Amino acid sequence: MTTKKTGKLQPRARLIRTLGEELISSETVAAIELVKNAYDADATRVLLRFVPPLTKGKGAIEIMDDGNGMDLKTIESAWLEPATLSKRAQKRSSQKNRRVLGEKGIGRFAASKLADQLEVISRRRRTATEVVADFDWSLFDDPSAYLQDIPIQYREQLPVNIQPEGSIKAILNISSEAPDSKLTHGTILRMNVLRESWDRAKLEKLRHGLSRLVSPATGGADFRIELDLPKQFSSLAGPILPPAVLSRPKYTATGHVESSGKYKISILLPGDARPQESKGRLGILSDSSNEQTGVSDVSPTGPAPQCGPFKFEFKIWDRDQRDLKPLAGSLNSTLEAIRQDLDNAAGVNVYRDEFRVLPYGEPGNDWLRLDSRRIQNPSLRLSNNQIIGNIFITADENPELKDQTNREGLVEGPALSDFQTLIKAILSIIELPRSKLRQKERERENSKRGKGLFDGPELGEIRAHVGRNYPRDKKLKSLLEKTESELGRKTEQVQEALARYRRLATLGQLIDTVLHEGRHPLAGIRNQAQAGRREFRQNNTLPEPTLEKLLTRFEKIDNNAALVGAVFNRIEPFGGRKPGKPKEVILEDVISSAFAVLEGDAKDRKVEFSLPSTKTTVRIEPTEIQQVILNLLQNSLHWLRHTDENNRKVQVDVTRQRDDSVAITFSDSGPGIASEYRDQIFTPYFSTKPDGVGLGLAIVGDIVTDYYDGTLELLDSGPLPGATFRAILRKRV
Predict the structure, then answer these.
(1) What is the dihedral of CA 135, 140, 142, 144, to 10 degrees?
(2) Which of 76, 89, 84, 81 is nearest to 104 (CA)?
């Protein structure tokens, strides 16, 4: 016998508390969420008043605004209905046509996060009464109570609080473009019995969060926020304004990216009267290897981004003492205070419809992984704490950039990935002229600074001796000056080389460790897989389908182990072991073996190889030449992805010269190297790739120069229309 019944969900009252804890990550976020509600209500002024003592179980927080306010019907249909559709149905505010920020009805959860008791007092525009509703959130903690069992008391009354002489007049001191001295509308949230204590650190965090809440594009011209705090926190009270240092960046960049990927950037460097302009297109490009790691690249030939258009502005500082100390002096501040202000504000913020999307840009929220990117190339890349970035989007033009359920961050997916990729590509474009300027600044500084271990020799005594004893010998003085200058230049080169090779030596040791420790178990895995296949083939007792399935699995284990082995072979040339003795080999065979390492990548990217058919006998260390070829090939494979896949080619030629030297010409059909960067590409840590390290060509140049007394040069033209390099080997060939 079957009995059918129909039931209904009966949520427990504690669901409200649970949602508040899960959806709102902290008390500061909860307060900011309630300020957002005031923005949605067309408020021009918001006051946050903290009533002492600010300890758990005591004190109060009041948030009052001069917005549209609510009537009895709104209280019943909105505040008493969590997850109401009212804001989702009405995308823009009624008075100021603002794009509303709240759509999920979680304002009351924010209130429950802050205090145990809430009194909502509100008066709608052009009404003669105000509404008062009382919420005792502690009642929702009863594990046996259902939502429907919790009473909510509310009433309609003649205005007491929201009228010219009522409590709301406290916001009159807040400046506004359109002050309303009548104060006949607005909302007051009185939250009593604090759930957590508020100390200086938490209030500072709230102030910093509020200072970046409103879009800098408008400067909060029609939305002012003020903090009213107890006496011991008076230094944090008052209007919410950004610190003065934020208006004094060293570099600025503004621009936009269209939905098609077209971009325009204006970069203003110190000393320039006009900004540098950069235009182009950024299409999203991702091949199979990148998709496995969730990394995308940009190319003019790639498809349009899924994130939609956006505008941006970046303010950038160099954080060393040389730059910040004069800035601190001009602002009558200290170096420590300046750094603290930058630390608090640093990060890349996202503003949607002129209001900030949390938690992007919060302290410690490096959502673009800029610090990891800088570790790979510290002299070129910007770190998260050097930037105050503001990205401006709209809900209407960027529909794929959707809020997470808790309204803290955007939903992970292709649109957000494209968004991140484009922002980093824009930063890469900004970093290049900055790097060039910093190089000039270092050169000027080196000519002025005092002497240290690597600051060049001090020839003052010699110069004085020459001046006393050979005052008329102009040639001797000229030689002395020339020698001092040359010694200083050589010392600087030694310093740069030592810094570079310290990093490379550590990397080489790590690679050797991985290879040494990894190859033995890898060989064991392959041996066991092959032995397993042999044993199962000899076992005739298993059913045929089962046997085939097991053999297939062992074969996959063997194949995957072989792939790992291929990766080991690929990175072996970059290990730290001392190369072997030069031996007689066919140079073309060494080049071919290097190409074989990246053959799979080339096939994935549809790149055609044209390798030399000559046979040139040389006496070299093969792994050194492999490093040269692999670095050049890796660069080509990256940039060829930015060209039409029907015309992706790499050509290598080997020629024995008349002086018995050997020339290797390496050419591709990629986009080539822009003229403004041709003199920088061999500089260590310089890279035009968004996440490039900038060591490949420096390593190639060092190998060719140091080991083979040769030269590496970028030619103006070659057999293919992209970049063409020529390495000439003069020694050991």
Answers:
(1) 120
(2) 84
Return the closest-CA partner of residue 712 out of 696, 695, 729: 729
Phi, psi of 135 (to 5 degrees): -120, 125
Quick one: which H or E segment has residue 251? Answer: strand 251-257
Instruction: Please provide residue 335's backbone torsions phi and psi, each rounded to the nearest 5 degrees.
Output: -60, -40
Do the Cβ atoms of 276 and 433 come closer than 8 Å?
yes
CA distances from residue 689 to 93, 242, 635, 643, 674 in whole angstroms, order as listed:
44, 34, 9, 15, 13
Asked if residues 450 and 458 have their Cβ atoms less than 8 Å apart, the reply is no
Q: Is the pLDDT of residue 176 over 70?
A: no
Residue 467: its H or E element: helix 460-469
Say which amino acid occupies 325.
K
- DSSP secondary structure letter of residue 162: S
Q: Degrees (nearest 5) of the Cα angle 74, 77, 79?
A: 75
β-pair partners for 64: 47, 188
What is the radius of gyration, based on Cα positions, of the chain? 34
pLDDT digits (tens, 9 = 90+) for 13-23: 777 777 767 67
First-to-final CA distance of the chain: 94
**DSSP code for 477:** H
Kindly tell me if the per-residue pLDDT of 731 is higher than 70.
yes
Provide the token pair at 383: 């770190």
Please say if the pLDDT value at position 631 is more than 60: yes
pTM for the model: 0.60
Q: What is the pLDDT of residues 521-562, one digit of tens each?
A: 777 777 777 877 777 777 667 777 777 777 787 787 877 777
Q: Are 669 and 722 in contact (CB under 8 A)?
A: yes
What is the arithmetic mean of pLDDT over 267-275? 92
Q: Which residues contact 441 (CB under 8 A, 6 or more apart)?
A: none
Confidence (pLDDT) at 68: 92
Cis peptide leading into residue 179 (ω within 30°) = no
Q: What is the pLDDT of residue 417?
A: 92
Residue 93 CB-half CA count within 13 A = 21
Between 149 and 82, the more confident residue is 149
pLDDT in tens, 189-233: 999 999 999 999 999 889 988 887 766 655 556 888 999 999 999
| Burial environment of residue 124 by CB neighbours within 10 A (0 to 12, 13 to 18, 19 or more) | buried
Residue 269 and residue 290: Cα distance in Å, rounded? 34
The span from the CA of 525 to the CA of 531, in Å, is 10
* Closest by CA position to 626, among listed 590, 654, 583, 658: 590
CA pair distance 271, 113, nearest whole angstrom: 50
φ, ψ for residue 567, nearest 5 deg: -65, -45
Question: How many CA atoms does the CB half-sphere of 657 hold within 13 Å?
Answer: 15
CB 138 within 8 A of CB 116: yes
pLDDT in tens, 311-343: 999 999 998 888 888 898 888 888 888 888 888
Torsion angle of alpha carbons 493, 498, 499, 501, nearest 10°? 120
Q: What are the structure tokens assigned to 479, written together?
A: 């030689």
The overall average pLDDT reported for the chain is 82
